[in-house]
Amino acid sequence: MASVIEGNEENGFSGESGAVRIQERLQKRHQARIEDAERRKEAKESHSVAEEKSEYFSSTFNRERACIEELLSSCSGAERAVVTEKLEEATTKTLQLQKFLNDSMQFLTQYELRQAQAALQKLQTSLSETKEEALPRKKFAFRTRTKAADKASAQDAHPPPRDEGTPLETSRTQVDGAAPAEQCGFSNMTSEFITKTAEEIQKRDVLLTHLTNCKVRLFGSPSTLHLKHIDGCEILCGPVSSSVFVDNCRNSVLAFPCQQLRTHNTTDTQVYLHVTSRAIIEDCRAVSFAPFTWSYPTLEEDFTVSGLDRARNNWTEVDDFNWLAAGIPSPNWTVIPEADRKANWDS
């Protein structure tokens, strides 16, 4: 009889234990469902927020771009003072649009980012072309002097000095680097040591094109920097307040701080970079990066003028638009090993 009671007690105990375990499993399953529902809800809300941000960016970006395009188109046929005012406003709005894009990069898709970058670059090119067409001060001043000299020579019964004027214009072009109006820079030079001071480039667009085996030192803070068709050169520049555009560069060493870097069709080139947003490469090969190390006496002052954040450097965050494999590093760019980085820029 005692053994039966003991067996029933054991069975009762076992039944209670099983019920507890079942209850625990049910509670865990219920909790898992709640957590899964919360995750789905958060994911949906996050997706909705991202879509809202993307829609806001798209509408704002397109509205501001249209405003800038309207400013540029209104320059045609306007008086010089009006054109100057409109171009200044367009330049300011373009820089603001660049900053808006940089601040929005974290939630934009690669496609959206690429489209916006292309639109902004097209806008900056249009701005430079409009400046060149509407305010060609250097070109007109030079031609006026040439015509005046021709007229004076004709009045003195001397032959017009046209043959002398052509070499003079060519010489002027070589010195000024064929940079468009409102720009400065150099072009078509080989094996030269070239410098420009802060007074010459401060808040201006700088264009360097068709340089071979040259060393370039740009002191100051330009608005933008364009490097095109560069071969075997060493180019060092102070803080660029907006973007640096590199196209068709090879076998060169570049160093500059900037807000954004766009590099196209470039091979076997080292870039010593300080960038506050991101660096973007496209159709590039064997491009390597290291942090910006060039220094000169007024560098800190130029950082202040540029508005760049001295403490923020995303030099290792490089987006390759030709490499979309997730989780696999692009083979088109590398980090320069510390032992191989250039430390002495005076040699």
Automatic annotation (TrEMBL):
Biased composition (Basic and acidic residues): 22-55
Keyword annotations from UniProtKB, A to Z: Acetylation, Chaperone, Cytoplasm, Phosphoprotein
Domain C-CAP/cofactor C-like: 160-323
SMART domains recorded: CARP
Gene Ontology CC terms, in alphabetical order: cytosol
A GO biological process held by the record: tubulin complex assembly
Gene3D superfamilies with a match to the protein in the record: 2.160.20.70, Tubulin Binding Cofactor C, N-terminal domain
Transmembrane regions: none
Subcellular location as annotated: Cytoplasm
GO MF: tubulin binding
The keyword Ribonucleoprotein belongs to this UniProt entry's keyword annotation: no
Chaperone keyword on record: yes
A Pfam cross-reference name: TBCC
Role description: Tubulin-folding protein; involved in the final step of the tubulin folding pathway.
Subunit structure: Supercomplex made of cofactors A to E. Cofactors A and D function by capturing and stabilizing tubulin in a quasi-native conformation. Cofactor E binds to the cofactor D-tubulin complex; interaction with cofactor C then causes the release of tubulin polypeptides that are committed to the native state.
Protein name listed in UniProt: Tubulin-specific chaperone C
Lineage: Eukaryota, Metazoa, Chordata, Craniata, Vertebrata
